[in-house]
Amino acid sequence: MTALKPPAQCETKEDVRAEIDRVDQALLALFAERHQYVTRMAEIKTDPHEARDPVRIEAIIEKLRTRSLALDLDEDQAELIWRTLIDWNINYEKGIIAARRRAE
Fold it and tell me: What are phi and psi of 71, to 5 degrees?
């Protein structure tokens, strides 16, 4: 993703807002792509308890915090966002798995 205008070249609030909107659209597309993989994972798993894997979650968070620092991003904020995303995905997976099991 190449910025149309790097932050330092944004001279007005409108410039900054336009770039934020562009980044938000790219993020939304990535979240939609990620969601397809989460849905597929829920189709593969057979037990709702499989949706939560504490060891994997902590490994993801550890990697995320390291990557955040390398990008000069506040690692606590990144962790909060990812834990929220992970929790949402766990609940989503559990719902799909439970619904499938009820239908069987």
Answer: -100, 5
pLDDT 10s digits, 49-75 = 999 999 999 999 999 999 999 999 999
pTM here is: 0.85
Both tokens assigned to 10? 């944004």
Distance (Å, whole) CA 79 – CA 102: 34
Cα–Cα distances in angstroms (integers) from residue 1 to residues 15, 24, 58, 62, in the given order: 17, 12, 28, 25
CA atoms within 13 A on the CB side of 66: 6
- Dist CA 33 CA 88 (whole Å): 15
- Residues in Cβ contact with 6 at an 8 Å cutoff, skipping those fewer than 6 apart: none
